[in-house]
Amino acid sequence: MPYWLELLVQISFSYLSTVAFAIIINVPRRALNLAGWAGATGWLVYWLLMELHTGRMLANLLGALAIGVCGMLFARRKKMPVIIFNIPGLVPLVPGATAYQAVRALVLGRIDAALGLTLRVAMVAGAIAVGFMLAQLLAETTYRMRATTTDPK
Amino acid sequence: MTSEVLATCLLAGRIMIEGGSEMYRVDDTMTRIARNAGAHRAMVFTTPTGLFIAMDAEPLAQLEPVRRRGIDMEKVAGVNQLSRAFAAGQLSLTQLRLALVKLDANTPFFPVWLQVVAAALCSTTLMVLFAQAYDWADMPLAAVVGGIGFYAYLRLGHLTNVRFISELVGALVVGLCAWIGVRLGLGTNLDNVIIGAVMPLVPGVAITNSIRDMLAGHLLSGMARGMEAILSACAIGVGIAMIFRFF
């Protein structure tokens, strides 16, 4: 498959899956489109970094950071809470496949593999959470800066 | 007057937790409503299962239990919007309370068929993304199985209050349908189909949120939500596991 087609598939599928999940959790109608773009951006960052072999943790962290920054910008523009964009946007990054493999290994009696996979789930979830924390830090500092520069007091 | 302020804050907080908001936002909104209603210092203590609020230098504290916790972004957005309107002075305290009661009773939800179609779409696209192999052949089966599994989960959610049961049965239905589908030759890779179809049920977001709550200093909420997420994951795991044991 040519590279541009691969890129197109990744972007459009992550956008669609994010919008679909947003419908499941009842995101308000006027936020659906932007939530989809937050998800597509985060997945794109993750996927490109994985293609560059930077490692799973860094890719997850920066992907979550990208979603957090998108969520922050969209939330300010639409005057809605950040999580409306963050939670659906996160869905492609969530370690669902790894969690499934861990459960399957456990059931089939391969305890060693199951422990390793469970640890990986925990670490990926931690990396995503740290990415979000960084985005929040960024949001708070820029918010303060803007408040101090626009306020004449 | 004070008790109306407290009751309004508690109602707003409960609706937000039922909608799946983060804890710091619940804290923030309740404190803001109290401050805009004229209370200088309101003390708020929030956990995922109950809320407390008290006024400084007043012998009054109120609490409100939170009995069910779902995920409904429309509610979170609605409370946020009402709180903004209240801060801007467009609503009086009584109007705010009435609007919150109305929001609590009837939040618009997407129709069931649209949710099932969305679950199908979510399953099939995520399957392609996660499989890393452009598994086009399994897309129709993943969509159908994901839709059926999510529908079973929704139906059972109306019948029972215990969410873990409906998650377990939803996962079981996913596993069973995927296995039958692959046996009938409609799909090729059982693992990929199940991974995709189970995604609308997976509590990955809850796990990440709980870690984030804990990193933000809400240790109690983080632990409680994390436990809830782990129980959900176990329920789904058991549902899937049955398929591997028996077939």
Based on the model shown, name its key terms.
heterodimer; A: 153 residues; mainly alpha; globular; B: 247 residues; 2 domains; three-stranded antiparallel β-sheet; 10 helices; elongated
Secondary-structure blueprint:
The complex is a heterodimer of chains A (153) and B (247).
Chain A (H helix, E strand, L loop, with lengths): L2 H22 L7 H20 L4 H23 L4 H8 L5 H12 L3 H40 L3
Helix pairs in contact in A: 1-2, 1-4, 2-3, 2-4, 3-4, 3-6, 5-6
Chain B lengths: L1 H17 L4 H14 L5 E6 L2 E6 L5 E5 L7 H15 L5 H13 L6 H20 L7 H21 L3 H21 L6 H9 L5 H12 L3 H28 L1
Antiparallel strand pairs in B: 1-2, 2-3
Helix pairs in contact in B: 1-2, 1-4, 2-3, 3-4, 5-6, 5-8, 6-7, 6-8, 7-8, 7-10, 9-10
Task: Provide an overview of this structure.
The complex is a heterodimer of chains A (153) and B (247). Helices cover 82% and strands 0% of the residues of chain A. Chain A has 153 residues and is mostly helical. Chain A has one domain. Chain A is globular. The termini of chain A are far apart. Chain B is mainly α. Chain B folds into two domains: 2-105, no CATH class; 112-246, no CATH class. Chain B has ten helices and three strands, in the order ααβββαααααααα. Chain B has helices spanning 2-18, 23-36, 73-87, 93-105, 112-131, 139-159, 163-183, 190-198, 204-215, 219-246; strands at residues 42-47, 50-55, 61-65. In chain B, 48% of the residues are buried. At the A-B interface, α1, α4, α5 and α6 of A face α3, α5, α8, α9 and α10 of B.
